[in-house]
Amino acid sequence: MSIGIPQKRRKVSAQIPTIGFSDEDLTNVLYPHSDPLFMTMKISGTDVWRILVDDGSSVDILYYHAFKKIGFADRHLAPSPGPIYVVNYIEVPVVGTIKLPIVLGSGDRNVTQFINWLVIKGPTHYNGIFGREGIATFRGVASFMYQAFKFPTPNIIGVVEGKQKATRECHLATFKSDEHREHHELVMSGSLIKLADSTPSGSQGKRVKAKTDPSDKGKKKWMAQH
After folding, report:
1. What is the pLDDT of residue 8?
2. How far apart are CA 208 and CA 153, in angstroms?
3. C or N terminus of the chain, fewer CB within 10 Å?
4. 151 - beta bridge partners?
C-alpha cells in the first residue's frame, strides 16, 4: 500500500463574473471608427478626463500638468527608479512617482483602488495613460470598438463609457501642433516599459541590453523584457 503526500489546496478567490460586450454597448458609439479609448476617472477626489486606456503600456502615466491641477506639488512625489523607454529606446524622463486613489464607476457600480502613477512632463492634450498595471488592478476589460471599460464591483459589472467626441477633438488638436504630434507619436509608437533595476529579479524577467547611442559614450542601458 502506498501512501501519498497530501497536496495543499490553492486558495480560491471570489469568482469574477463574466465580462462581455454586446450591441447594447454600441448605443452611444459613432461608427465607423477606429478611435482609441479615452475615459474620465476620479483621481484623489478630482474628475480627470482624457485618460488614454492603453493595454500596450506596462505602466500608468500621469502627466505633470494634470498632477499639478489635481493639487499636488513636487514634494509629494517619491523618487523614480529610472526613466522609461519606448520600444525604439527613446528615453522619457520621469519626474517622480505617486500612489493615488482612483474611483471608477458611479452609484452602486463603483470601485476604488490605489494606483502607482509615474509622473512625466511632455507636450500633450491628454492627461494620463491607464496601462496594464491599472487595468489589472481593477480586473477590468477595455474595448476600443465598444468604447467602454468594464470591471467587476461587489454588486454588478461596472462600466465607464469612452469619451469618443472628446477623443476626436483631442487628436485633432494634437496633430495641429508639430510639438504635440511628435510627443504623441513617441508615446504611441510602442509599449512603455520601465528601466530595470541593476539587480535582476524573477518579477523583472530576462534582461536585454539596449542599443547604445554613439552620443552616450559607451554607456549601457538595461530594460526589462516582457
Report:
1. 57
2. 39
3. N
4. 158
Average pLDDT across each block of 10 residues of the chain; the chain has 226 residues. List them in order: 52 70 87 87 93 91 95 95 75 92 91 96 86 96 94 91 76 57 45 39 35 38 30
Rounded-to-integer distance, Cα 22 and Cα 17, Å:
16
Q: How far is the C-alpha of 84 from the C-alpha of 68, rounded, in Å?
A: 21
Q: What is the CATH number of domain 32-195?
A: 2.40.70.10
Q: CB-based burial of residue 108 (10 Å sphere; 0-12 exposed, 13-18 middle, 19+ buried)? A: exposed
Element (H, E) at 70: helix 64-70
Q: Residue 170 has what pLDDT?
A: 65
Cell of 180: 504635440
Q: Kindly list the distances between the CA atom of residue 218 and the CA atoms of 144, 211, 221, in Å, as whole numbers in the listed order.
A: 42, 10, 10
User: Domain limits of the chain?
Assistant: 32-195
Tell me the Ramachandran region of residue 22: left when phi exceeds 0, alpha when psi lies from -120 to 50, beta otherwise. beta
* Cα–Cα distance for residue pair 148/135, rounded to 1 Å: 13
- Can you give the pLDDT at residue 212? 35
- Which residue in 30, 4, 9 sits closest to 163, CA to CA? 30
pTM of the entire predicted model: 0.69
* Pairing mode, strands 141-143 and 128-130: unpaired
